[in-house]
Automatic annotation (TrEMBL):
Alphabetically ordered keywords of this record: Lyase, Metal-binding, Zinc
Residue ranges crossing the lipid bilayer per the database entry: none
Lineage: Bacteria, Deltaproteobacteria, SAR324 cluster
Organism superkingdom: Bacteria
PROSITE patterns: CENP_V_GFA (PS51891)
Domain named CENP-V/GFA: residues: 2-119
SUPFAM superfamilies registered for this protein in UniProt: Mss4-like
GO terms assigned for molecular function: carbon-sulfur lyase activity; metal ion binding
Protein name as catalogued: GFA family protein
Amino acid sequence: MIKGKCHCQTVKYESSNDSESAVFCHCQTCREINGSAFGSSAVVPRKGFEIISGKNSLVGYESSSGKKRFFCSNCGTHVYATSSKKPENIILRIGCIDGNHNIVPTHHIWTSQKASWYDITENIPMHEEW
Ligand SMILES: [Zn+2]
Ligand SMILES: [Zn+2]
């Protein structure tokens, strides 16, 4: 079971399944959308994922064809994303997940677009793309 929320706690979700995979993404879109050096995301099955409050406050933005990112319209938190390439999945932003979970990203992806001002120091696999 995974629970998460946006910063203002308007949007809350639950996933009855654990995360299947997790990555750090250094692509330009993730950097801009997160306002940071990279995005941190974890995949859960769509089946078992539920928005338990704040559904009407979610707004979607298609950052690239088929990739839709969902934000809280009150606080601006990027809560999760979906991709038409893998419609069976929900891509959670790990920073929004509650509590002491054990989700640890295992790969750095899109390092070809990595910020020049950030050096990767973990010894985990890196991929120029994904
Ligand atoms: Zn919010
Ligand atoms: Zn990315």
